[in-house]
Amino acid sequence: PDKVTIALVVHGPALKAFHAAGANPDVKARLATFATSGVELGACGNTMKSQKVALADLLPGFVSLDRGGVVRIAELQSQGYV
C-alpha cells in the first residue's frame, strides 16, 4: 500500500453523487477516509461549470480540475496510472 497512489477523477453525471447536500452517508464516510489517506480527489471543472456547482458544494477533499477531468485522466495515464 505504501507504493500505491490513487487518484479519483470525477466528471459528467457521476459528479452528482459527490454533491455534499445529497450524498449518500456511506459515500461521505468512505470519501472522508480516502481524503485523509492521501487519495487525490478531483472534480472536472467543465462539469462543475455545466452543473453550476462550486467546490464548496462538493464533499470535502475535492479540488477543481480547471483543465477538465478527461485532461487530468490523460495526464495521469502518461505518468503510468491505469
Q: List how many beta strands DSSP finds.
A: 3
Cα Rg: 13 Å
The strand line-up of the biggest sheet is 1-2-3
Q: Which percent range fits the helix content? A: 25-40%
Instruction: Name the shape in a single word.
Output: flat
Distance between the termini: 16 Å
β-sheet strand percentage: 15-25%
Succession of helices and strands: EHEHEH
Care to describe what's here?
The structure is a single chain. Helix content is 35%, strand content 16%. It is α/β, with parallel strands linked by helices and 82 residues long. A 3-stranded parallel beta sheet has the order 1-2-3. Strand 2 (40-44), helix 2 (45-51) and strand 3 (62-65) form a beta-alpha-beta unit. The chain is flat and about 35 Å long.
Structure at a glance:
By secondary structure, the chain is α/β, with parallel strands linked by helices. 35% of the residues lie in helices and 16% in strands. The chain has a three-stranded parallel β-sheet with strand order 1-2-3.
List keywords for this structure.
flat; alpha/beta; 3 strands; 3 helices; 82 residues; 3-stranded parallel sheet
